[in-house]
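quick one before i forget lol
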Amino acid sequence: MPISQKKLDANRRNSAIARARSAETWHKIRERNQAVHVQSFVCEHCGVSFCKAVTALDIKKKRFPRFCSSACAHARKKPPELRERLSLKLRHKKVENGKLVPAHIRYCKNCNSPIHSKSHKRSYCSDACRIEYRSLHKNLKYTESYKNYRCACAFMFNLADYPEEFDFTLIRTYGWYDPQKNSNGVSRDHLYSVSAGFKNKVPSSLLAHPANCKLVLHVDNQSKGGRCAISLDELKARIAAWTAKYGPYSPNTWARPTKHSAVV
């Protein structure tokens, strides 16, 4: 049943009255809490009696001044617990316009240690970390050692020999990847990436194992970059399960790698 106009007007009038009373009550409470009272206190450091104005809210919450001046406050001997608490509070802070604000903490991209610098543009804690990181990542594809490791991690087996381990539906739908004819095709992906294996000095025989292979779209393979889909422990567990099912892996018994074997 529709609400009558008379009832709507009454509801609006009652709401306005409730808001006015709420605002009046809030102002009364604020004035009462901000009422100033002058009281005398005794300094905890020098023992001198001093007078200071406090609000009613401070009296209610028992927030009384403890020292007569800032000199007495800083001259007191702080217990170890207080010093540790202040150290944790002031850690990673900086002063801007006379105010203490949280500092932007940056961590080294190579060793993941905090960078102690006023500059917000630094990405490495030292030149040694910068050189090491760039040699492993930025210039990784241009080093001769990485090229040799990448070739050793190539898959040397025939997918058709293991139809239970791989899903060929993706191949029937999109076909194999070809840089000139089929750029949206399927390629072989390393679950534990080659770049991570090179950085962590993982034997290439583990990365070239069939248990580390997965069929994915080549676009997804390239966008993954050097990220790993599984950890090294998970890879070892997959290899152990594969060995229990098919026997030990021997690269010499597998077929030669095809052009569809992509390494990332």
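fyi The radius of gyration is 35 Å.
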